Amino acid sequence: MAERSIVITGASGGLGNSLVEVYSEPGTAMLLMGRNENRLEDIKKRAVHLGAQAQSARFPLADTTTLVQKISDFDRENPIDLLIANAGVKIGNVDGIEDAAQMSKILDTNLRAAINTVQAALPGMIERRRGHIALVSSLSAISPQPDLLSYSASKAGLRAYGSALRQSLRATGITVTIICPGFIDTKMTDIHIGPTPFLVSKERAARIIRKGLDRKAPYISFPFPLVLLAHLNNLLPARLSDWCNSGLRAKIETGDDDI
Ligand SMILES: NC(=O)c1ccc[n+]([C@@H]2O[C@H](COP(=O)([O-])OP(=O)(O)OC[C@H]3O[C@@H](n4cnc5c(N)ncnc54)[C@H](OP(=O)(O)O)[C@@H]3O)[C@@H](O)[C@H]2O)c1
Predict the structure, then answer these.
(1) Which residue's alpha carbon is at the smallest distance from atom 22 of ligand 1?
(2) Closest Cα partner for 15 from 39, 37, 38, 48?
(3) Per-residue pLDDT tens digits for 217-256
(4) Which CATH architecture has domain 4-252?
(5) Which end of the chain is more exposed for a tag (fewer CB within 10 A), N or C?
(6) Which residue has the CA at smallest separation from atom 8 of ligand 1?
(7) Which tens digits make up the pLDDT trace of 54-101?
(8) Ligand 1 midpoint to CA 187 (Å)
């Protein structure tokens, strides 16, 4: 049996790829999830090349039956030490209007599927009284963005869920970490046409996340200047806060996940 067992959703994406790379080492078993066959196979090969035992599972996270099955099967062979619920999708809105199907897709992927992923891994962790759950939220959970209505709501929901879960699992031996990054240079920012201040590379983001997870931090947020601005923004009167955020208006271009 491997010394350490890790599950990463959204492993085929930008941040997911870099997370796989920072965790791939001999003695580590990994379950890598995603939808894009080529990208998923490429990152699996990279993980194996770096010394990990990696397997992939390609399916849409909305398929809860498959999600639960894949995680339970992997957990039986490789009791999960770390689960990183990283998969997510960004689709924008124009003047407050969002297509209903797109809104469902955002909430289903970023919130419902992330919670389902945790639910699938929790029984094993609770039985063993150990494990680490990491949820990739966003700074838009702290300072919601005008052109990302449902996206901000989904990430704020995930942050709230993680915070409640951490309290609920207190004294069970299970750690919960909520990750709130600012802008990371991935496919997701390629479609974000607007300011992306303090943009961080995906490799640096993954290193920051691993460092925080290694010390079992309850929150990991970066980069510092944007974290500070996001929190300060919350302290301002609403009209002033809205004016400050208007400098971050963006158009979200059509991506793979548009319906
Ligand atoms: N980039 C940023 O600026 C930024 C900032 C804050 C937070 N985040 C969060 O970081 C996480 C990773 O994002 P990223 O920047 O790496 O974006 P990305 O490159 O677009 O990757 C997104 C990943 O999520 C997977 N995914 C999306 N919808 C899915 C679904 N329905 N079923 C299964 N997998 C699905 C994608 O799979 P396929 O590619 O295989 O389809 C891909 O692996 C997301 O949760 C995002 O919200 C990103």
Answers:
(1) 13
(2) 39
(3) 999 999 999 999 999 999 999 999 999 999 999 999 976 6
(4) 3-Layer(aba) Sandwich (3.40)
(5) N
(6) 138
(7) 999 999 999 999 999 999 999 999 999 999 999 999 999 988 999 999
(8) 8
Question: pTM of the prediction?
Answer: 0.98
Structure tokens at 91: 């689709």
